[in-house]
Amino acid sequence: MSDRDTPHDEATELEAWQLDMQLRAAEGEGRLELAAPLAERLFEIRDQKLGAFHPDTLAAATTALTHYTKLTQWAAALGLLERLIDARMLHGAEEPAALEKHLQGLSDLARLLVDAGELDKARRAATKALEIKRKTFGEGHLELASSFALLADIELERGELDSAADAALAVFEIRSKHLATHAADLYADAVRIGDIFAAMKDYEEARKSYRLAVDITARALDSDPRKMGEALLRYGRAALAEEKPEFAERPLESALEMLEKASGPKDLSLIVVLDELGKAYLALDDYDAAEETFERMRDVYAAHYPPESTHCVVPRVHLAEVATKRGEHARAAALYEEALSIAEKEFGKESLRLRVVLDRAAEARLEEGNLPRAKELSTWLLRLFEPHVAGPDDPALLPAVRKLADIALREKLAGADDVHVEEVARLLDWATRLMHAAAAQITAETEALKAKRAQAQEEESGERSGE
């Protein structure tokens, strides 16, 4: 019997069997670019024959989605997920679990859209899931919490902070009535609210939320050291952003204690809290504690990376900052030069990634009185910036030009023969122009922010009057 004479069901079964074999072979060889479309075709066949909710149908769809996601083939993954949702809706009238699976599909779609950077589409999918839950379960039902949480995360990613805060607060209000059974979720909700307030630069409210997360951990999560440490770290970071290091010191010390208890004294997770704690000590002028903390940070990095790794640049820069605060400019310069050497080997002499270390090394050499090296480093910094700016009066050039003008003036006053009055005047005039340009740029940015704020207030006023 020829293929055209083969009954449809039998031919479909044969194709499904062949696809399944080919899929297994492609996966065994690690060829996901072949496995993904094979799994998608298998989903189509099983959907037609078995229905959208059959375990074999869902398994094929999940396999295809997994492979497309690993390949970052977002268009294919999104198309498949949307078709899967459509298929569930089409067959939903006959399936009791249709609503639950449809809602899960919308949530999956929203998360996939976030990964793909399609935030507006993600918001629509998450909002649709929330609307369906509202109609089905009613306001305040626990089922709504996960959709509000997803929507809050999406709005935060979109930069819509007021909407993110509203959604996050709605989640917390719902779950706060279920502390005994949803303590871990409630902890995550408090942290999310804190993160949103921190993004709003309302650091006092952010600290209140992180403090609440600590309290939830103590009351309902057996004082889990990792959760406690993460919340205390965020609290300390918010206090530093608020320029209140006196409020950051103790929480960060406690965060370090908790995270060390959870992960051990050399775990890389300690780096973040050591970094913030060292900054707090430095802001409080406790140079001994800051130096000890940054040295420990260096030791943790050294336990995981070779000495020439760029990871080892960060603690050197921090130790140089401590030396600068102490007035030990020669030591600070030496540490900055070590950091610069490592970064140069990794990124190349003309990489913009060198700019911060170059600037600080030049400043340290200038303070040390090593004018030739300060001039060499400042000239390097200027040369680094020039290809990346709009012109010679771009404010980004100010740090290098100002140092070169200062160096030339000091050299002239010291009686250097190779420094001419005209060159000193040129550099001073250039630095002055750059300072005026920088001031004008700040003024323009300030005016733009004022205009944006006024427009937002006007729109808000219009919405209220419309109500």
From TrEMBL:
Entry keyword Membrane: no
PROSITE patterns given in the database record: TPR
This protein's UniProt keywords: Repeat, TPR repeat
Repeat positions for TPR: 271-304
Pfam name, any one: TPR_8
Residue segments, region Disordered: 448-467
Signal peptide positions (record): none
Protein name as annotated: Tetratricopeptide repeat protein
Species assigned in the record: Polyangium jinanense
Lineage: Bacteria, Pseudomonadati, Myxococcota, Polyangia, Polyangiales
